[in-house]
């Protein structure tokens, strides 16, 4: 995604971990660009999901579909 962001002029913000049930569950990384002379902002939020145990696989599937 970083390659696409640089090719299309998107600004990359810091990748931030997120938690689920007190465990790291993946990362969130936003990309954005401004348009209409800075009056509007277009944002793409990339969410990665880390699946460590089979019992959480349904949670991961639900987050991906959301």
Structure description:
The two termini are 20 Å apart. The chain is elongated and about 40 Å long. A hairpin with a 2-residue loop joins strand 2 and strand 3. It contains two helices and four strands. The chain has one domain. Strands 1, 2, 3 and 4 form a four-stranded antiparallel β-sheet that branches. It has helices at 2-8, 57-65, and strands at residues 11-12, 16-20, 23-35, 40-49. With 66 residues, it is of the alpha+beta class.
Based on Cα principal axes, name the global outline: elongated
- Determine the mean pLDDT: 81
Number of strands: 4
**Major sheet size, sense and barrel closure:** 4 strands, antiparallel
Radius of gyration: 15 Å
* H and E string: HEEEEH
Number of helices: 2
Domains counted in the coordinates: how many?
1
Uncertain residue ranges: none
Beta-strand fraction estimate = over 45%
Structural class: alpha+beta
Distance linking N and C termini: 20 Å
State the share of residues found in helices, binned by percent: 10-25%
Helix/strand layout:
Layout lengths: L1 H7 L2 E2 L3 E5 L2 E13 L4 E10 L7 H9 L1
Antiparallel strand pairs: 1-3, 2-3, 3-4
In short:
With 66 residues, this protein is an alpha+beta fold. It is built from 2 helices and 4 strands; from the N terminus they run αββββα.
Summary tags:
66 residues; alpha+beta; four-stranded antiparallel beta sheet; 2 helices; 4 strands; 45% strand; elongated
């Amino acid at each position: 995604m970083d390659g696409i962001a640089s090719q299309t002029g998107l600004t990359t913000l810091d990748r931030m971990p997120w938690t689920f049930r007190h465990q790291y569950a993946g990362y969130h990384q936003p990309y954005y660009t401004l348009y209409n002379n800075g009056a509007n902002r277009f944002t793409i939020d990339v969410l990665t999901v880390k699946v460590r145990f089979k019992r959480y696989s349904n949670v991961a599937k639900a987050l991906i579909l959301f």
